[in-house]
Design a protein that fits this description.
Elements: H1 3-17, H2 21-37, H3 41-57, H4 61-76, H5 82-98, H6 102-119, H7 122-132
Helix pairs in contact: 1-2, 2-3, 3-4, 3-5, 4-5, 5-6, 6-7
């Protein structure tokens, strides 16, 4: 990760902590764009995941879904580990649910549950099981 991306990510985290969600979203997007220029796919997916989460928090569910799906595509082509993919699938599923598309969300919750279980993340497993009605 280069220095400019690190700085943008820190500024984005700080903005999010102070509830400046629009600013945080913009900073994460700038980091993602910078990563795209340098072909840094893992960091791009990480930043996109945060953009998606913020878009969802801001009520922009269609945008959240498209951005999370872009990050998912990166993770599925080797841009991260199982936990990264699980976290991303969670965001895709949440966006589908907010768009009243639970049929699309269910297989994502199942896959995320499996990946969280493999990664030893009990909280992630519990959230998936909640959404799966288990």
């Amino acid at each position: 990760m280069n220095g400019a991306v690190s700085t943008l990510l820190k500024q984005a985290r700080d903005a999010r902590e102070t509830e400046a969600l629009e600013r945080a979203c913009l900073l994460y997007q700038q980091a993602a764009d910078l990563c795209a220029l340098s072909q840094n796919l893992a960091d791009r997916a990480f930043a996109l995941r945060h953009v998606s989460d913020l878009k969802r928090e801001l009520g922009r569910f269609g945008d959240a879904l498209a951005i999370a799906q872009e990050a998912e595509s990166i993770y599925r082509t080797g841009g991260g580990n199982a936990l990264d993919l699980a976290n991303c699938l969670r965001l895709v599923a949440l966006a589908h649910m907010r768009l009243d598309d639970e049929d699309s969300a269910l297989p994502l919750w199942q896959e995320a549950r499996h990946l969280y279980s493999q990664s030893g993340v009990d909280g992630g497993v519990a959230e998936c099981e909640y959404h799966l009605g288990l």
